[in-house]
Amino acid sequence: MKNNIIKKIPQNILNLLKEIGKAAEDFGCQAYAAGGFVRDLFLDTENLDIDILIEKNAAQFAKKLAKKLAKKKGWKVKTHKKFGTASLIFSDNFKIDITSARSESYKTPAALPEVKAGLLSEDIMRRDFTINTILINITPKNFGEITDIFSGVKDIKNRTVKALHDISFIDDPTRILRGIKFATRFNFTIDPHTQDLIKEAVNKNVFASLSGKRFFTELKYILKEKEPVLPLTKLFKYNIIQTIASDIASDKNAFFFLKQIKEVILWYKKDDYLKWALYFMGLINNCDKKASQDICRHFEIPHNERILFCDMRLEAKSLLKNIEKNKMEYKKISVFKTELILYMMASLKSPLKKEKLFKAYKKAKNTKVIINGNHLIKLGVKPGPIFSEITNKLFEAKIKEEISTKEDEIDYIKKYFLHNGH
Ligand code: ATP
């Protein structure tokens, strides 16, 4: 098993791991590859998010490593004193995180744990699921040796997500979201006892003592998954979303709508927008302004995103009624972000109307009025609300393709505005 796993590591990464391992040995400790990188090696899934674990102070180790190797190879070392961790950053921005083995204790359920330096075994004990506890030794003498205290390899083979102990979700309810994320991402099942622990924790209302911000951080990871609809469905199945935000509808329509969003995403193909934000809008689709604001406040969502979720989203929704009646408001959609247009498309039932909206959006985005305030003053128009009235009319005329050039715009202004005494 040892050699098979090592064979799966890309050569350049293998070389890096060997160098770090050698440096750790010189520093007087063993070093291990840990977490998702190791899990994904067993799953044959590429993961370049590498975490190294050592039993000594990671920040001091990284500094030594910096002196020894970094200058020579152009590696940068960033230490995070507060967490006793460090990151090695390479010229192509590729990054390896180094952490010291830690032990954690939870003073109160769902609060952030007290963390202190600990043994390797203690570090493994504080982890979320057995599949994330496997270690690969990277120091020269023991290179490739696997430490698998919780039989994570067996659980990967059996495609099972299993918690390490019975109070895992009481200690940290975010693990529930992580477990659902891993199970759906890898098409694993959550082991029956772990399922019971989740249900028990939800019944005990563990999420009540978890901050909205921490909940949302994990929810956002789910929304960023390749396939977020399935884990979202599970969050409803376990009654989690409803406890956190009762206004989020969990009925069949809500899922139908999330699936519509997925279809629009697949159709659009490009990734020049925030996919997670689009799914989040799908999640709060039935919430009115007040409910959306309450949810955003609870999740501590930043101001600019709140504008998108609470104001712009509802404006987009109100435009849909006119679009259904074949009335397109070009000016309004011209300032919309892609997320909003895709959200609107997901809401429209008719494929023809979806297409019409998207075409209109592209046209509105490409339509620019050339004449500006200075031009208008030169033409003798007095500054005031008339400026935006003129610009809007020019925009409409351009959309209708009645005019196109700057000269056309000036003629249009002269014809429709200047003879009116402005
Ligand atoms: P992903 O592929 O989603 O990034 P990952 O396993 O690499 O998955 P990270 O969030 O990068 O996830 O965490 C790295 C490791 O830290 C995990 O594999 C797990 O062992 C541990 N970990 C992360 N979050 C928790 C948590 N809330 N409780 C316990 N252990 C955790």
- The portion of residues forming beta strands comes to 5-15%
Q: What is the name of the CATH architecture of the largest domain?
A: 2-Layer Sandwich
How does the major sheet shape up?
7 strands, mixed
Q: Point out poorly predicted stretches.
A: none
Characterise the protein shown here.
This protein has helices at 2-7, 11-27, 36-42, 58-73, 120-125, 152-157, 168-171, 174-186, 192-203, 212-223, 229-237, 240-244, 252-268, 275-283, 289-298, 303-324, 330-334, 338-347, 351-366, 373-378, 386-399, 406-416, and strands at residues 31-34, 50-54, 76-80, 85-89, 95-100, 102-105, 114-117, 135-137, 146-147, 160-161, 189-190. By secondary structure, the protein is of the alpha+beta class. The chain folds into 3 domains: 2-158, Beta Polymerase, domain 2 (2-Layer Sandwich), CATH 3.30.460; 245-365, cca-adding enzyme, domain 2 (Orthogonal Bundle); 373-420, no CATH class. Strand 8 (135-137) and strand 9 (146-147) form a beta hairpin. The site of adenosine-5'-triphosphate (ATP) has 11 residues, from helix 8. Residues 35-36, 49, 51, 126-128, 132, 172, 174-175 line the site of adenosine-5'-triphosphate.
